[in-house]
Design goal:
- By secondary structure, this protein is mainly beta.
- The protein has one domain.
- The strands form three sheets. Strands 1-4-7-10 form a four-stranded parallel beta sheet, with no helix packed on it.
- The relative contact order is 0.29.
């Protein structure tokens, strides 16, 4: 699997966090992701978040789009 550990970042609004061409599991561990606003989690395998904090950009932030077959929180 692809593992991202102990990171803190803010992706651009409506950007793709996990691209649809990713065919291996993606696991975020102890990450903080700020400014989420309409971002996408795609891929053809599992996307997992363990001990992570996901923060929207504000009260008007768009929801995440999840198209991967399995999301683990």
């Amino acid at each position: 699997p692809t593992t991202l550990t102990d990171c803190h970042f803010a992706p651009p609004a409506r950007s793709v966090l996990v691209h649809s061409a990713v065919d291996t599991p993606v696991h975020f561990t102890r990450c903080v992701i700020d400014g989420l606003d309409g971002n996408t989690l795609a891929g053809t395998s599992t996307v997992a978040f363990t001990a992570c904090t996901l923060n929207g950009s504000g009260p008007d932030a768009a929801p995440l789009t999840v198209t991967c077959p399995e999301l683990r929180l």
